[in-house]
Amino acid sequence: MKIYFAPMEGITDGILRQTHRKLFGGVDTYCLPFHKLTQSMTLTAREKRDIDPAENRGLDVLPQALTRNPEHLLAWLDEVSGLGYTRADLNLGCPSPTVTKGGRGSGMLRDPGYLLSFLDYVFSRPLPLGLSVKTRIGYEHPEEWERLLSILADYPFDHVTIHIRTMREQYTASNHPEAFEAAVRAGIAHPVYNGDLRTPADVAGLLSRCPSTEAVMIGRGLLADPSLARQLRGGAKASREELEEWYRLLYDGWNRRFDRVIALGRIKKLMEWPSEGDIRCRRLLRRARDMEECIRAIS
Ligand SMILES: Cc1cc2nc3c(=O)[nH]c(=O)nc-3n(C[C@H](O)[C@H](O)[C@H](O)COP(=O)(O)O)c2cc1C
């Protein structure tokens, strides 16, 4: 089974990707957070650094675009291909209101007619690399999935990542694993399951419901337990020492790249993931003034 590390804007940067591979591994492909394509087609400094091959040395990465303009997507694919990448992804999942109100991300799912013409335009050109898509299952209602699925099934995507929620459901408890099973039944090319895989037992549950699952994408589960992919390959759960090293290396990397305040803010957010629901630990973390106090808070 193939394992993708989900893109998470503001979290899964090159420092996190490289440190993860070095300490834990188990992931096949690291997905880059989206590039928001604009009229001027200039990437931000953060986006340029993130896609720089030097930043991703030794990693298999999948760059991602957020746009509703097919010309912008085609121009970006040329750029990405020029950097030596052979695959890229289109974001149809971002639920942020600032993104969806412009009809991008999961905002594109609100108008299947437009999605159809967008994909027709893109796929009528010879593409310089393999294009995949990461989608939610609808905008308002899960019932929209049937129509969206029939549209997506008509195009030669490299793979289709399915986050089993609608835009409205954001990141809430409500989700629809049966939407993935419907995609497998519909014969969609290389479906990738995404959503709420937090433990090896969650993945085992998915495989028993849907044994033909070829690939999964994991985000928050890998933030809460960076050894999750390794465990899925038969390896060990992270030891306390390994976790401490993980946090220290990340903090040092972010401190070097940004500054102490940014590094501390980022590391605190990351360290909150394993202690979800532990109010005391969160309070201690929020009050921590340096890395040593952060480490004490989680132990
Ligand atoms: C902070 C944050 C940032 C995210 N950024 C992106 C992004 O740039 N591109 C994308 O396709 N999905 C993004 N996502 C969605 C995740 O990739 C993933 O689909 C979602 O977290 C569900 O998977 P999980 O339950 O395994 O975390 C983001 C999610 C979070 C929480």
Account of the 3D structure:
The protein is an alpha/beta fold and 299 residues long. The protein folds into two domains: 231 residues, Aldolase class I (TIM Barrel); 59 residues, no CATH class. It has 14 helices and eight strands. An eight-stranded parallel barrel has the order 1-2-3-4-5-6-7-8, surrounded by four helices. Helix 2 links the parallel strand 2 and strand 3. Helix 1 packs antiparallel against helix 11 and helix 13 runs antiparallel to helix 14. The longest helix is centred in the C-terminal third of the chain and has 18 residues. It is globular. The two termini are 33 Å apart. The mean pLDDT is 96. The site of flavin mononucleotide (FMN) has 22 residues, from strand 2 and helix 9.
- Uncertain residue ranges: none
Biggest sheet layout? 8 strands, parallel, barrel
Which CATH architecture of the largest domain would you pick? Alpha-Beta Barrel
Name the beta content range. 15-25%
Question: What's the CATH topology name of the largest domain?
Answer: TIM Barrel
In short:
The protein has 299 residues and is of the alpha/beta class. The chain contains 14 helices and eight strands. It has two domains: 2-232, Alpha-Beta Barrel (TIM Barrel), CATH 3.20.20.70; 240-298, no CATH class.
How is this fold's topology laid out?
Blueprint lengths: L1 E4 L8 H10 L5 E8 L8 H7 L9 E6 L3 H13 L4 E6 L4 H4 L11 H12 L6 E9 L6 H8 L7 E7 L11 H8 L5 E4 L5 H10 L5 E4 L1 H5 L3 H5 L7 H18 L2 H13 L6 H9 L3 H8 L1
Parallel strand pairs: 1-2, 1-8, 2-3, 3-4, 4-5, 5-6, 6-7, 7-8
Helix pairs in contact: 1-11, 3-5, 11-12, 13-14
Bound molecules: flavin mononucleotide.
